[in-house]
Structure formats: C-alpha cells, structure tokens
Amino acid sequence: MAVAITATQQDVWPPRVLISVTGLTVTGTADSVDVYRETGGERTPVRAGSTSAVTDTAFLVIDAELPFGVPVTYVAVVDGNTEYSTGPTTYVLDNGKVAITDAINGSAAEVVILAWPDKTRTRQATVFRVGGRNAVVSGDLGMFEGDIELYVETTSGLENLIATLENATEGVVQIRQSGEKAYDGVDCYVAVLGVTERRWSQDGSDPRRRVVLNVAEVEGWAPALEARGTTLQDIANAYDGLTLQDIANDYPTLLDLAQADLS
Q: Which pLDDT value is given to residue 123?
C-alpha cells in the first residue's frame, strides 16, 4: 500500500482536523513520521504529530490549533526525507465571532472583541545613574501585555467563557478569529492574568456582559501536552492486539462501533 495523507474536518466547534497518514511500514524497520501544518510557507509541527517508529500502518493525529481563513496544507515527512502533503484547504469559523479555546482540555468559548487598543511590550532592564548619565543594562524586547475587552450576549455564554478561563491548561488560551474577515495581530496564545466582569445594565437585568482580560502573550502550551480528542487510533491503543484494520473490518460504520462491546 502506498503512503498517503488525508485531512478530515471534524464536526465540532471550533473546527478541528483529523490527519491520517496511511500505508506505513511496521515490519522490519518501522517508519518514523512527522506531521506539520503549513500556512503562508511556514511549517509548524502538529501537536503530538511525531513518532520515531509507528506501531500501526496508519498514524492519526488531531490538529486543534489551526488558523481560520487562510489556506492550510498538512505535510507528513516519513523517515526524515520523503514528504506527502494534502491540498491547501481554508477552514472557517462559523458566525463571524472569535473563539477562545484550549486545545489540551478541549474547552472553547465564543465571544466578540469589543476593544483591544494596546499591546505593550517592555524590556527587562536596569538603569544605573552614573556621573550624571544613565547606563542601562537590558535584554530583548518582550512579548506583548495588555487588556482585551470581550462581549458575550447570554448568561450561558458568560458561564462558558469563565469556565474556559478558569480551567485553562497552564492558564493559557488561544485566540482565533473567524477568518471571514481576517485581521493581522489577532490570533495568538495568551496567559490570562486577570478577569474583570462588567454588567451591561447596572441593575443586572440585562444578561449581556463585557469581560476584560488582562493578558500576557506566550508561545503556547508545553510541547509534551496532547490535544484532547478520541480517534480510532486511541481506541486501538486502548486494547491489546487491536489494530485499526480490525476496527474497520468488524465495525464498518460509526453506529456499529458505538454499539460494540470492545471489552
């Protein structure tokens, strides 16, 4: 079987993509696989998308951090030198709002950005005043910090946002815009340092809320953490001796699989 890579959008919000690399070699010297997301000519490793030796002829990984509104191509590098790629696909976040997401625990909230006026970057520095002049010892200019004011319309929307922020893995969330009107400088990872809830109507009669986040830009979650999501590969790994081909043979539809007793 020839090696092939496919990318399938999952029916969840926000959209995630299941990447499958099939036709791999497990006998003798097993194949190594590295899966990348490519946008604008830049490659980013897909979280948990690397293995030094596959244990099945199919390797699956979920990408829960993809950008929206720009062409995305997935590339699999097999044995360090042979590349296989999907065609470019543009994924769109429905409703034109913004997603606040945690790829690691799978939580997400839908919001509108009301205000994001400033991104403040400061330099770690010490000033020494010597002989009437300033001598400064400094490092690199840091990543941005600032306040982002969000808007939610309903009580359930507010509760979902607060839960996402409270339970954020390592205190970090990812901000992604819809892509229907893509703007530079919006998509990013931030550590949430503080949250302020502001009532739309001061007597509390209106469920709408403005939520101000005090944030600091970060590079994302620790590389060792995997995105939450169950695939057929996860099911196969949970049972000794069960392979993806076994599942395909015995349970040809998802309904068959849902009703199956794999114990």
A: 92
Of the candidates 7, 20, 21, 185, the one whose C-alpha atom is nearest the C-alpha of residue 90 is 7
Burial class of residue 240 in the structure, from the number of CB atoms within 10 Å of its CB (0-12 exposed, 13-18 middle, 19+ buried): exposed
d(CA 77, CA 204): 55
**CA–CA–CA angle 10, 13, 18 (5° rounding):** 25
Among residues 209, 190, 193, which one has the least CA distance to residue 201? 209
pLDDT tens digits, one per residue of 45-91: 999 999 999 988 999 999 999 999 899 999 999 999 899 999 999 99
98-132 per-residue burial string, b: 16 or more CB within 10 A, e: under 16:
bbbbbbbeebbbbbebeebeeeeeeeeeeeeeeee
Cα–Cα distance, 2 to 23 (Å, whole number): 5
Per-residue pLDDT tens digits for 87-113:
999 999 988 899 999 999 989 999 999
pTM above threshold 0.70:
yes
Nearest to 195 by CA among 163, 155, 238: 163
Q: Sign of torsion, CA 222 227 228 234? A: negative
